[in-house]
Design a protein that fits this description.
This protein is about 20% helix and about 25% strand. The chain is an alpha+beta fold. The relative contact order is 0.15. It has 10 helices and 22 strands.
């Protein structure tokens, strides 16, 4: 169990907080590129407890500045895109993509007051469907060479969803390999539809089992966790009766992302981004090592479960996450439909907006969660001491941080999981037309 003070230290992310200071030293997903499509590329952003506005000016430059005009505080999300920037409709003050005020047309002729006015602003960069922001001190670090960033745009699909909970409990479900045997258990093994749950209805590696059969049969995985340059590597080993071992490797990418295998050909890199202390967005990049992704179809499928413009899920506490007791008896372990994202959503939202960890009792299968919390506490201490170079992913050159390799594979128990893992990744990448075989941090 934690004390309330310890829980607050890990969960609170506003300006001046320890965890907030750590998160601000990394690039954070701020919006989907799709939110800037159309005739008026302006989007409201609430990120790490701050209200901002994201826009693309007439020349294509991205700007992320304070949402409230430095003059009288009105909402710049209703501004006019013109004359090289974003103009406030209240008195016509014009701001460029850096937040610098360029014009104050109501001020006396020749006034230079605008030169001293700059809105809050943060550097932004765009990669494969997501706009990232850097909200920390100094120059922003380079993005690491993760697969989701180095893959061509044609092979990556990006989406997001709003969860009514703190960012940490959203992240922690992704570093809990044991939960999948229960939370995502299907009582029928036929695949009824193309959905998030598809990854648990396909065949598991080279076995006769679907993934959901394998998870049902082997609910007590052997878990190993180790630190890497990017965060943590979590290994779940399920030992089959025939002498083979199913190896599932997922990764925690510090500070708040995970990379999980969705299928033999696809991984999901997912960030859990604080809106504020009590809500968060998950941002996912689906990266294909096979054929280009069908972005229109994937977006249509996911929009069927979410509403615009805030990407909030249609199922939530107000409708009991779609819970159906009849379904729970015969079809799914949760009774909440085929979409495993809804299963995760229920788990993290039903804890409360900020989980009360003073009442939790961790078990041996929570080793990843325990290791991550220690890593985050260490990072908070390092930032407080001014020792930013000790932070995960900042100790190494960004270009050397690749992958991370997340995969389902199977092999003989005597091979050892590392050999199975490496071979599975080499085989996956061998047929990939955007990366050569062997170019992997598992090599």
């Amino acid at each position: 169990m934690m004390t309330q003070e310890q829980n607050d230290e890990l969960t609170r992310i506003g300006p001046g907080t320890g965890a907030g200071a750590v998160l601000r030293r990394y690039w954070q997903p701020a919006a989907l590129s799709a939110e800037l499509e159309g005739e008026r590329p302006i989007a409201p952003v609430r990120l790490l407890g701050e209200d901002l506005v994201l826009f693309r000016d007439e020349s294509g430059k991205l700007g992320l500045i304070g949402r409230h005009c430095p003059h009288r505080g009105v909402d710049l999300c209703y501004g006019r895109l013109e004359d090289g920037g974003l103009r406030c409709p209240f008195h016509g003050w014009l701001y460029d993509h850096t937040g610098q005020c360029l014009e104050q047309p109501a001020e006396p002729e020749g006034s230079r007051l605008h030169e001293n006015i700059r809105a809050v602003n943060y550097p932004v960069t765009e990669r494969n469907g997501i706009v990232f922001a850097y909200m920390g001190p100094g120059e922003p670090p380079a993005l690491p060479a993760l697969d989701c960033f180095t893959a061509p745009d044609s092979h990556v699909f990006a989406f997001k969803g709003l969860w009514n909970c703190n960012w940490l409990q959203a992240l922690e479900i992704g570093i809990d390999p044991a939960h999948a045997s229960f939370l995502h258990r299907f009582l029928e093994d036929d695949d009824p539809a193309e959905a998030y749950g598809k990854q648990f209805r396909d065949r598991a590696a080279n076995t006769e089992y679907t993934m959901t059969e394998l998870l049902r049969r082997y609910p007590r995985p052997e878990l190993q966790v180790e630190e890497t340059d990017s965060g943590l590597r979590l290994v779940a080993l399920r030992h089959l009766e025939d002498g083979r071992t199913h190896v599932r490797v997922t990764n925690q990418i510090f500070p708040e992302a995970i990379c999980i295998p969705m299928s033999r050909e696809m991984t999901i890199t997912q960030w859990h981004v604080p809106v504020d202390d009590t809500t968060c967005y998950w941002y996912s990049m689906f990266t294909s090592f096979g054929q280009p992704v069908d972005k229109a179809l994937m977006r249509e499928q996911r929009l069927a479960e979410h509403r615009l413009p805030d990407y909030a899920p249609l199922k939530d506490a107000s409708n009991r996450w779609g819970f159906d007791p009849a379904e729970q008896r015969t079809e799914t372990y949760t009774g909440m439909g085929q979409d495993i994202n809804v299963h995760d959503q229920w788990a993290v939202e039903s804890m409360g907006q900020v989980q009360d960890r003073t009442q939790e009792n961790l078990g041996t299968t929570d080793v990843g969660i325990m290791r991550y919390r220690r890593m985050l506490r260490r990072a908070i201490r390092d930032v407080a001491k001014g020792n930013d170079d000790a932070l995960p992913m900042q100790k190494a050159e960004p270009a050397t941080i690749t992958g991370p390799v997340s995969i389902d594979a199977i092999g003989k128990a005597e091979e050892g999981w590392e050999a199975v893992w490496r071979r599975g990744d080499r085989e996956r990448r061998a047929g990939c037309d955007w990366i050569g075989a062997g170019e992997t941090d598992a090599a």
